[in-house]
Amino acid sequence: MHEGSRASTERFQVIAAAYGELSDPASRAAYDRRLMLQDPMRLVNDPKAARALDTLESLIQRLGRGRRALPARKRGRDLKLSAQVPLAIANLGGLTRVKVSYTTSCYTCEATGSQRPGKDLTCHVCHGQGSLRSGIRRMMTSCAFCEGRGHVILHPCLVCEGSTVVRDERMVDVQVPPRTRHRSLLRIKGAGEPAEGDGPPGDVLLELQIKAHPLLVQDGIDLRCDLPVTLSEALSGCVREVPSLQGTEKLRIPSKSRSGQELRIAGQGLLAVDGARGDLRYRLLIDIPDQAEQQQLATIRAAEQSVGLGAFSRREAFVHTISAIKDQNRETKRD
User: Fold this and answer.
1) Which residues of the chain have pLDDT under 70?
2) Are 79-115+156-211 and 217-286 the same fold in CATH?
């Protein structure tokens, strides 16, 4: 047999024997006890022994698991955000922009945390390993002195201050589906924090909060609005610009309109499940001046007198009803 082949065979036999002993829990425990009896502090404080055993354990794991020993790619962290969307986009669907703030590796120091990586000192506690074995069971823990880096930063990065990460932000376009309800959750794939290495980024879980319209009030699938008009606009009629779901519309107010009268624009309300749309409903409210001079009041009274109180049909009907009530009360008292 070739000398190189014989050496390879012997090396494989040694590894196979070690795997057979260390992969069995009972044999592994006996192996640890023998080492502890020989030198109790050997496995605790000897970095060379710890590194050698780490190498052996890693090799055993690879022999036992094969391709599965390769580390899985770690995803970036998911982010939970909230965003306000206009009523029109929430109901009809459409695009909205969302600002996503996230943590990422520092671009300035290339995630080393140092201004001068070559000038950093090897950690004297973990001897550059970044981790330590401690306790009787030799549990692996991160080195507290160097924070797991394996080296001590002498000149921290001025941007990340040695943390290796910074806060960043970007704008993301989000497609809002039609008929979205208040506080609905929407998952945006790949918009979360970047992963370390070549792993895929995380997602954004977005809570959509519907922003109330400043003038329109929802009433089923209709939208209502109180529309103030002046007395002259109500009497003579006019065209007013009014709010709608997607902007504004022109509304014609007929002459001799009364306060409380409702006007409609059909088919411009909210979108229903069956695809139909409600109406826009405007209730007229005759507005009066907050302040009026005596001369202006006199002019108004003169105008009323010139028209005659009989021209105010609703007022006259109300006054007539009051008179009838008073007459009825008098008749009741006589009886």
Assistant:
1) 1-72, 134-138, 335
2) yes
d(C-alpha 14, C-alpha 81), whole Å:
55
Tokens of 299: 């002019």
Query: Distances from the Cα of 118 to the Cαs of 106, 143, 153, 158, in angstroms?
Result: 17, 20, 10, 16
Q: Are 148 and 82 in contact (CB under 8 A)?
A: no
DSSP, collapsed to helix, strand or coil, labels residue 41 as: coil
Tokens encoding 48: 């060379």
Among 260, 258, 259, 238, residue whose Cα is nearest residue 250: 238
pLDDT of residue 41: 45
Angle at 87 between CA 84 and CA 89, to 5 degrees: 85
What is the Cα 228 distance to its own chain's centre?
Answer: 39
What's the pLDDT score for residue 136? Answer: 57
DSSP 68: G
Give the domain ranges of the chain. 3-67, 79-115+156-211, 217-286, 294-334
CB-CB contact of 108 with 159 (8 Å): yes
C-alpha neighbours within 13 Å on the C-beta side of residue 318: 5
The predicted structure's pLDDT at residue 60? 59
Environment class of 265 (CB within 10 Å of its CB; exposed 0-12, middle 13-18, buried 19+) = middle
Whole-structure pTM value: 0.63
Contact 66, 185 (CB under 8 A): no
Q: How far apart are CA 92 and CA 333, in angstroms?
A: 64
Q: Architecture of 79-115+156-211 per CATH? A: Sandwich (2.60)
Q: Are 159 and 139 in contact (CB under 8 A)?
A: no
Per CATH, domain 217-286 is 2.60.260.20: yes
CA 316 to chain centre: 60
